[in-house]
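__Record contents__

***
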Amino acid sequence: MEAHFASSSLPPYWVQQPQQQHQHQHQHQHRQQLELERQNAALAQRCQELQGELEATAAAAAQLSAGLALASPGGSTQTSQKQHPQEQTPQRQQRSATHTLGDGEVDREELALLQRRLAAKQREVEAAAAAVGAKRAQAAQLQAELEEARGLAAALSDELARWKGECAQRERELRTLQQRVEAAEAHAGHLEDGESALKKRNSELGTALAQRKAAVRQLEDRLRALQGSEGSKERQMEVLHSEVEALRREGADLRRHNATLQAEVQRLEPAHGAAGLQEAEQEQWHSPTSGWQPYQQHQQLEAAVSVQAVEHDEPLPLSAVQLNRNAAHAPLVPAGAVARYAKPSVPEYVACNTAGSYPSSPPSCGRSPRATPLASLAPQHAATGGAAFGTPVAASHASRPSGQLPQEHEHQQRPPAPSSHGSPASTSSGACQRDAASFLAAQLGGLGLATPGSSSSPFATEATLQDMLGRTQALEDRLLALNAERNALEAEAARMPSHTNGRTLKERKRRGEVEGRLEAIAKESSSVRLQLRRLGVK
């Protein structure tokens, strides 16, 4: 077999395919199949050549055997006799006749010739036998080679069948792999379609999310604006309620103080009236009667009250009948007693509360006996003062009118006892209410508080408050509009491509416009928030 493969042009398969290439046979199936086909063609050609040689050897052996059969003595004689039946020449006939005629004696020359022929024939037979032996040995060798070639052909056919089976298996695997590859490609196509659909859906969801974020941001801004406006309104209402409560407390304190003063005046009125009458009688005894004149204070009081009522469009607190009735019992006051009986300073609210029932004389008139308790009872402070009621004992002695008992004046400086008597009807007049309101405003201003109508109020008037609320609402609406525009521009900027290669000139200009507008909106929003913060909205 090795000699056969050495004589053949192609090396054996196991020489062509090293061991390391057997691990990658599935990658070289077509090349191996072509090589096997070439080897099979070479083996078939070699078999044909051997078959021709075998047939030639068989023909040569047949010829040799035929030659040997002819070379045998009997056979050769008979054959020669059969082949040359008519070869006897006249000389040979004569010679044979001579032998026969010589009583059975054979010619020596003929005998030598025959012996020589026989030796030549023997040599030929020996050479033919040697040639036949060689041919037989060669035939045996060729037969062995033929058997070996047949075995190799059978092995090669088995190997070819095995390789054909493997090739078929590889082809089936290849078809299976091709089907799998096609299925994988189809699945990859489906996945790419799904990916593109998901990207499109993602872009849509991103746009929707940006819009929802913008809407949520707008709602949050609106909520903060509403919370700020509600907080400012609540703070304003709290301030107003606190001011109203302070005014109510001050009004209640003033009413209690007024009631206490009225009760004290009513309690001290009889004693001081009697003392005044007694003093007037003493002065009448010691003074000429020509210096006395009837007191006309009710006329001046009626004129003053009428003027105040006309100026403020209010009803008169006292009718003319009451004034005439009071004037009938008016005492006579000396004209020269004005300097001696000068009335001390009285607070406005005390004068207003007692002006209806207890008239006091102007500075140009003499002191009335009915005005003495009020003048001695009032504290010595300014009209708009906020000091406590009452003065020390030394100050009361210094400011005590002449002719008044010290015990009585000290009794007047004690805090008055509460009384169940109501306030006079004159305390509800418009002039007294305005004086009380001005006095209360002065006291609240001194305490750091403010009234709704005063200039120190943070809201001044109702019109100012409404104007502030209107400005706040307008600023909040403007802020909401700016936030909505900013959200729309941010959504548009998010939809624009981020890279600069795919943008057109129009898109670049639009992006610049959007960025500029966003900066302007940010500046305007900060300005609006600053104005809202100045108005008290966080």
Remarks:
- The longest strand covers residues 292-294.
- The beta strands are 292-294, 332-334.
- Residues 108-286 form the longest helix (179 residues).
- The chain is about 70% helix and 0% strand.
